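Now for our target.
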Amino acid sequence: MKKIFIVLLLIPALMISACGNKASKKKDIGTKAEINQQEQYLTEDLIIKIDSLIAGFQKLGVMPHMKAIREGTLVLTEREKRVKPTFLTPLTKVNDLVTLNQKSRALAIYAVDREIAVLYDMPVEEYDRVLAQLMVETDNVALMEGTEIKVEVNTLDLDSWIVTMGSEQLEKEQVHLFFETMASGILEALYITSLEIPRYIKYFNDETASDVSYRFLLVVEGIESLMPYHPELESISGILDPLKVINAINVKQLEEQLNTLAGEIATARNKLLD
C-alpha cells in the first residue's frame, strides 16, 4: 500500500497560529495549598485512572482488519474496486462542524474512512487536506509533530502518539476530547466492519475479537469518569449507550454481535457529527 508523508501537506497548515482565550479563574484567598487544590483539573486518583486507560489504548493499537489494509494484506479485486463505497462520511461535512467535540470526532472518522478509500483505490488528497485542517483546528500537537518530523505514516496511525496525545490534552484540560476521538474511531471502524462482515471478520482471532470489547470498556470508562468535569460528554455517552452490550470474547461472538447490532451501530455512527 502506498504510504504518504503528511508533512508535505501540513507545512502550510502549521504556519497558522491557533490561539484561544482561556477564561480567567477566580481565586479565593487562602493558603497556597488550598489554591492549588482549587485549581486542580482532576483528582490525583482520576488522573492515574485516565493514564491507565490511555495506556490501554496504546497497547491495543489498531484493529486487525485496518492493519491488514495498511499492510496490503487485505486487498480487493479489480472488479470489487469498481464499485466505490457510498457509505463514507462526505468530506464536505467538515464545513458544518463548529465545536471542538465535533472536530475531534471527525478527525478519527475521516482517518478510518481514508483507509477504506485507499482500499478502493480512491483519491486521498482531499482526505489529507481535511485531516490536516482538523489537526490544526483541534490543536492536536501530538499528531502534527508526529508528521512534522517526517516519519513515514498512515493517517490512521493514531496509536503511535496516543500517550503523547492523551497527555497533551490532559495538560490543556481537554482530555475529554481524547475519548471523543477514540470513541469515534472505534465506532466508524465497527460500522464499516458491520457492512462487510465476511470480508473483515477473517482478520480477527479470538484475542483481537475480545479486544473489541476491551476498547469499548476503555472508552466508556473514560467518558463516564470525566462526565462530572465535562457534562458535554453526555452526548457521546448517549450515542454509545445501545452498544455497551458488546462483550464478545471470541470471533464467533463478535460476528454474532456485529450482525445483531448492525442497525444500532449504523444509527450511533450517523449521530457522531450531528
Notes: Confidence is low (pLDDT under 50) at residues 1-38, 144-159. DSSP finds 15 helices and no strands in the chain.
